[in-house]
Amino acid sequence: MFSPALEAEVEAALRSTDTLRVAAALTAGTRDENDLTNLVFGDRHPDRGGRPLKRTEPDFGRLSREWLDVRSTLVRPLLWAYIRADAQRIALGEWRWWGNGTRVENEPDVRDRLLEYWRAATPSPPTGDAVWQWAWSAAFISYVLRHAGAGSHFQYSTAHRVYLHRAIRNATTEPGHPIQALPVTAVRPRVGDLVCTWRSGRRVTYAQLAAMAAPPSGHPMHCDIVTEVGPGEIRVVGGNKAPAPGVACGTGHDGCTVNSGRHALTGGVLAPLTGTRSGWIAVVRIGP
User: Closest by alpha carbon to 268, among 197, 188, 206?
Assistant: First the structure.
């Protein structure tokens, strides 16, 4: 029988070994949380020879609680930290590909890139000039999160309203879901999270948005990916954005691009935007 202090030391050492095991698997590309949990559980119980748990086992209750504890307290936080880090890396890589916002959508060599974004969001991507004439900012978000490994947890779409409403429903009806949208006043954004606004002069609150039973068409919304969090501001990257402040986006050679921006934090949370835009509404948390 170990003393409480020794038990704590053994548990800490076990956790450290488990963390290294999960980190190695994540680095190798594994993104399935059950596979990652089974790796740790198998290491802890080598006598099982990798056999899956069965309800008929005499010690099923204790072993299943241990398996679930490994998944919720070790695997999920690490997995989603890696996914957020990958989202940051991919978003910044795309921004650099677009010349830090100097290359625009209607240039000849950009079409294939835009098609990659659309294909990540829909099985029926647009064709011809519609590839860049249609708003593609939600397709960009879908591309980044799909390639970051968010899997089936994220509802990929060509419209921000679709995945945002899904994330709001997750927060109210599935508190354990890894993708949840919360009011901007309630949570500090993290690297890899999304921040969302309404793209018009209409003032829309999170409560009003959450009260909508379904995401109506014509939702003029936009979300960016957080790539940096400082003490008083965040930096974001998004698609279908203007190449420079005050420059028209979407007509002639002043087309849209992937660009970065900075936004102030007040008391650790996102400050409302000023001017004609309605302000930030929600933070979509990517992972627990």
Answer: 188
Q: What is the DSSP string of 39-100?
A: HHHHHH-GGGTTPPP-TTSTTHHHHHHHHHHHIIIIIHHHHHHHHHHHHHHHHHHHHHHTTT
Q: Are 194 and 142 in contact (CB under 8 A)?
A: no
Q: What is the pLDDT along the chain (288 residues), one digit of tens a residue?
A: 444 553 454 455 456 788 888 889 988 888 899 999 999 999 989 988 888 888 998 888 999 999 999 999 999 999 999 999 999 999 999 999 999 999 998 888 899 999 999 999 999 999 888 888 899 999 999 999 999 999 999 999 999 989 999 999 999 899 889 999 999 888 999 999 999 988 766 677 788 888 875 665 666 789 999 999 998 999 999 999 988 776 767 654 458 999 999 988 888 888 655 544 557 889 999 998
Bridge partners of 156, per DSSP, are: none
